[in-house]
């Protein structure tokens, strides 16, 4: 038994250490098959933990850091589900995690999270399993009131209908067998077996719980989380689903602060603004009448007026400015994280806990991520107008690439997987587990559908999705960029949009009319492309602003926000890419296809050369009446034509440029004045969860 498990573990390690595995079809299968062996026979769990600990200690001694986090995640996943683990194995795992705390991120961050969970499990056996099932299945539990839900979003315009229907049937077939009663039986059975150990008579316990008795020691499954399937319809859909998730199941209506949202149409932003009301309240608590803090009885006629009364006066704690703007929402987790909830977020506001965790999982290519960035930006803007989601909800974003089947003559397939390739380069476990899932999804879609939901399912894809949302706890932050677009038609208002991955510029053949334009003399070759004026701020090691203005003739240019090579991943002297978001280090990679004119005996000729540079922001304008076409995030639906000028800059966090007041000072007339300064806007960063974050 131990030899078979050892071979499976070695296969996982070989896959992590090999850039091009010999069998592409087996990629990602070894980890899944390893966990399935333990699920079918729980008595193998202690042997597997011992093998994994030996490999972890070997990797530590030989400094093989690229396998530490994958092996650590594998150990923790086994320990969460197993019941027969000895105290000695728990102590060895905990001691190993504490030794990793001296390493840089992400090793110390992952190790701290694992050590915290191990300490909880050793204090009360079975706690990790119990909390996970209660939260994921939304079981009503007063001591542990946390709730989670996985939102699976698929855009039917980007993913084929066969893939959408196959995934939906797979999820329904697995979850139809998971009733709340069955999940509670699993929780009770697991808790008793974990606490009593060998003294627990598993067969008698299952008979009492009315579970079917098996010949071998019964395996207690870990139910898959609650997953809801959604077809992507627009950038407002994410906000709607999250608000509906916060609605208590026992209430047919939303709570008071959520009722103002019009879920049918989601009224325009200007209608959500707060209306100013004349107030005679001094703001001093002693000026309140006696008993003003007491709530009237529900049947009292004063109950209707109670909603208009001020309660608490100045003794109530005011939310800090950082809380009023969502800049601290889901920021990078530090080493001192609160415990007690699934994501470790604890309390965001005094007295308000994040009881809900929304795990948003999107499937698709780079175009889907661009649309997700639009929805994320829209959601953050709404938070500045109605601060109702941030204190109550922890938002976690996940991404699984689903690209079109690769064809021999098609190169667009690899172009649309740029962000997935980046995640695979910086996180080897993401590459091995998630980036290899696309062929399996297409294979599932080609299989004939089975409408029999009572069949016993053993779904590989659903298990991988579940493993990802449970163990993918380390976010990688991506800068969102804003672009302001000016058109040739002066009567048309400038447009504003955002992009996450790429902005591509093409030169149109048509020109725009301009008063007083004098055409060039005949016989002068104009040449291909267009004359462009570029004004940008160069990214320097010193981070000092340096403006550069240049004019050149180009046939096109591309602005990329994702590093394209391994050297850019680890960082460069001009624009390092840190593991945590640092605003000074965000930069765009600009590639300009410049036209070079040369003269020879045969006349003038033109050639092209590609120049690249890095910048924080850039302004580009057409100088010779050539119109431009902009394409955002490779999405044909997000194309702008007849453009003469555009400006690109890091997208600021909504409401992050608020004014800050300083101490009062005396002016020349002896009167007190308040000095106000405008704070530097924080950049808007969109996190995508991976297993380890960026491994340096």
From TrEMBL:
GO MF term (any one): 1-phosphatidylinositol-4,5-bisphosphate 3-kinase activity
GO CC aspect terms: phosphatidylinositol 3-kinase complex, class IB
Coiled-coil segments: none
A biological process from GO: positive regulation of T cell differentiation
Region (Disordered): 288-309
Stretch forming the signal peptide: none
One protein family per Pfam: PI3K_1B_p101
Record-given protein name: Phosphoinositide-3-kinase regulatory subunit 6
Native species: Saimiri boliviensis boliviensis
Taxonomic classification: Eukaryota, Metazoa, Chordata, Craniata, Vertebrata
